[in-house]
C-alpha cells in the first residue's frame, strides 16, 4: 500500500505531543525526564526512498490547493518548557547556548575553505545562476555559483550572511565559502561533464567553460568571485515540505506545519528577506548516527535573501506580496493600474552589491514569502516569540561581523546592509517580543521566591510601566488539575513570593499563572503557566505554557 | 533490528491504543519512541496525487523540449516565415549543429489549417568570432493561398476584400555581425522567384474578379527579383520579447531588381523605433513604437502591389484587419500604457495611428487611421506567451487578436 504525504501525519497528530498536552491526558502531565532537550529519534530510516518534488507543483499546491493542516493549535514538537529540543531538524545554538560573536561568525565552517586548482566534475548550463560542480585541491566536492554581472558580490554576499545566521538560529545548513577562482585554475578532465542544449550529458570542453564564465561577474584582477558550497554529508533523499510528514520516515511524526522551528522560521525569513523559503530550497540527506540511519533536514540556497534575487537585484514584490494574490490583482486590473501597490513606490539606494532591501517600509507582520507556506501561516504569537528571542540573543556586534564576512569591496554596502539588518531586527523584536506575555527565564528558589525576566525589556523594545499578576496553585500531576492557593498577587518588580502553605506541603508540583500588562502592549496579557517540580531541596521549572 | 521494531509495534497494537499505552510509558522519551515504533511498523511509500504526478511527469520528460530539441528532428507550433493571419499551423523538420558546433543546418517545413505551406533549408555558421558573426544561406519556398487585398491607398473599401495566392521561393545569403550585444549590422543578398494565382478563401472573391493590373500593379505578370539589403540596429531593450525598458532603433535598406520585365524594380527603406519608459520599477511601462516603410520605384517602374508595405493588424493598427491598407508608403505610431496586474499578466491600453500613401509627401495627418483598444498579455519575465488584444475605433467593427507573441 502507498500513501499520500499527510495521511500518516493525520493519524498521528492526535496522539503525539512532545510537551504536556492533550496526548498526556491519559498519563501524567509531566514525565520524570521532562523537559526533553533531545528529541529521541530512535528509529532506523534506511528504508527511505528519495522523495520526488516539483517546484511548480509546490507553488500550485500552496497557492491554490490549501496545503497543510490549518488547525489553530500550539506547536506539537516543543518540550514542556516551550522550547525546541535538538533533533534532525534543529540544534539549539545561539538562543539557548548564548553563542559568542566568534562562534556566530564561524558558522557551519569546519575549515578555511576550498583552495585551487579546481577539477571540474560538471557544469550547470541551466538554472538561475551559472555554476559548476568541482573538487578542490583536497578532493572535496563543492557546488560553485557565480554572481550576476549586473550585481557583483550580491548573491554570494547574501548567501554567506544568511548561511551563518540560519546556522546560528539552529538549522542545518551547508558549509558555504566565498572564494576566488581563475580560469587557468579550472581543470577539465575526460570525466568533466556538462549538458548540451537538449539536456544530454556530454564531455565538457573549454568552450563550454568559457560560455559559462561569460554569464558570471569577473573580478578586476581576472579572477571570479564564487560561492562554494560544500557537499552535504549523506545520501540525498529529496526535499522536505512545510506541511505533513514523510510516510516512509519513522522518525517524522510531527506534521511539519506544526513544528515550532518551521513556524518560527517565518520570523527569521522576514528578518533576512528569505522570500524563497520553500520546499525547493530544502534538502534531506540520510546520514548515519549512533549506528542507525536518520534523515537530516537542511536549509540551503540562500542566494535569494536580503537584497539579492540570485540573478538580479531582489524584486520589489519580494517580501511584500505573494506571487499570486487575488485582491491586489483584481484591484489593479479594474483600476487600469492607477491603483499602485504601496510597496512599488519604495525607494532603494543604488548599491549593486546589496541589491534591494530596506527597513523603513518593512513591517514584520506584513512580510510574505513567494507563496503561502503552511508552517509560516500557522505561526502563533508564541512561535514568533520563540524566534524573536533567538534573534535577540544575537549580539548587535555579531551582525556587523557577519556582514563583514561577505567581503563587499564597497564599504557603503557593508555599512548600509548592517544598518538595515539592525533596524529590521529592532522592528521584529518590538513586534514579537511584545506580541505575547514576555515573561522568560522563571525560577523558583528553595525559599519560594519567584524571579523572572522580561524579554521585551531585556531587548530594549518596550518602555517602563509593566505590571505582573501571579496566581499560585497546587498542581496534581496525575490528574493535571490545579487548585488555586491564596489570592492573585500584583507586582511591578520581577519577583514574587509563593504562599508558604504551598511550599510546606508535601506536594511535588507548584504552578503559577502569570499575567503581564502594559498600556502599549495588549499582547502581554496572554496567560503564562509555570510549573515547578520539587527537586532535592529546591524547585526546578518543568513546565511553561505560553498563550494556551 | 527492523524485525524487532515491527514485532514491538505489533505487540503495542495488540494491547490497544489509548490509556493503556500512555500509562505504560515511564518517560517522555519512551512515549515518543513508542509512537515512532508504531510508525515504523506501517511505513508507506509516498504516492503523489494525480495533478502532482502529471506535473512531475511533465518536468521529468519535458515533452515540449523533446518535440523541439536544439539538435535533431523537431515539431513545433507555428513555423518560421509563417505569415500573419495564416491561421493555426505546425512545423517540423531536422536541425543540427555540425562540425563540432561550427556550422548548423535546419531543414523543415510547415503547414496551416488554411493550407499555407512552407519548406526551407538553411545552412549557417552562427558561432563565428565567439558568436558575434553569423554567415548563412537559405532557400525558402512559401505557398500562401489566402492573402488579403483591399486595393491601394487609405480609401480602399472594406467591401472590396479579395484573396490571392502568392507562391515564391527565396534564395538568400546573409552576413550579420553583433560586435557587442546591443549592436547589429549586416547584409543580405538574394533572389526571389514568385507567381500569383487566384485566392482560395471562399469567403471572398478572388483578386482577378475585382482588380486588374492597373488597380493591383503586378497582378498580370510576376518577374523574378534579385535583391540586396543592408541593415543596422541598436537594441538595448532589457528583454527582447517582453521589453519593459530600453529602446530599439533599426534601419533597413533593400533594393529589388526586376530580372525579367524591366518594370518593377524599386528600393525600400524601413525605419523602426521602439522605446520603453519604465515607471515604478517596471510595473508600469509606457511603450512607443513608430515605423516608416517607404518604397520608391526606379524611374519608369512601379512597385508591385504584393511588395508594398501594409497597415493593419495585431502589430500596427489593431482597429483593422491584418494587411487592411497597402501602398508605397506606410507610417504608423503605437502608444501603449502597460500595467502589471500580477507577475504573470500585464494589461495594456493602446492607441494606434497610421496611414498609407502613394507618395511620401502624401503621408499626412489628414489621412490618419486611428484606433484604440485594450490588451491582456500573459507573460513570463522574458516573454509574452499569449496575448489577447481588442481593437476598436476602426469603423469596421471590433477586431480581436489571439497571438502567441508580443505586440511590440
Uncertain spans of chain A: 6-16
Which pair of protein chains has the largest interface, and what are the residue counts? A-B, 65 and 56 residues
Cross-sheet strand order for the largest sheet of chain B: 2-3-4-5-6-7-8-9-10-11-12-15-16-17-18-19
Strand content of chain A: 15-25%
**Numbering strands along the chain, what is their spatial order in the largest sheet of chain A?**
5-9-4-3-2-6
Total of DSSP H or I helical runs spanning 4+ residues of chain A: 15
- Structural class assignment of chain A: alpha+beta
How much helix, percentage-wise, in residues of chain A? 10-25%
Q: Write down the secondary-structure element order of chain B.
A: HHHEHHEEEEHEEEHEEEEEEEEEEE
Output the structural class of chain B.
Answer: mainly beta
Unreliable stretches covering 5 or more consecutive residues of chain B? 1-23
Q: What is the CA-atom radius of gyration of chain A, in angstroms? A: 25 Å
Gross geometry of chain B: globular
Instruction: Count all strands of chain B and give the number.
Output: 19
Q: How is this structure best described in words?
A:
The complex is a heterodimer of chains A (548) and B (408). Chain A has a 6-stranded mixed β-sheet with strand order 5-9-4-3-2-6, with helices on both faces. Chain A has a 5-stranded antiparallel β-sheet with strand order 16-15-18-19-20. Chain A has helices at 7-13, 55-64, 94-97, 101-106, 154-169, 206-214, 260-263, 265-271, 326-334, 374-377, 381-392, 396-404, 411-433, 455-458, 500-504, and strands at residues 2-3, 118-124, 131-135, 141-146, 176-182, 186-187, 193-195, 201-203, 223-230, 235-236, 282-289, 292-299, 439-444, 449-454, 467-476, 481-491, 495-497, 509-517, 528-535, 538-546. Mean pLDDT of chain A is 92; it is low at 6-16. Chain A contains 15 helices and 20 strands. Chain B has 7 helices and 19 strands. In chain B, the strands form 2 sheets. Chain B has a 16-stranded antiparallel β-sheet. In chain B, strands 13-14 form a two-stranded antiparallel sheet. In chain B, helix 1 (2-15) packs across helix 3 (28-40). Chain B is globular. The chains are: A alpha+beta (548), B mainly beta (408). Chains A and B meet through strand 1, helix 1, helix 2 and helix 9 of A and helix 2, helix 3, strand 1, helix 4 and strand 15 of B.
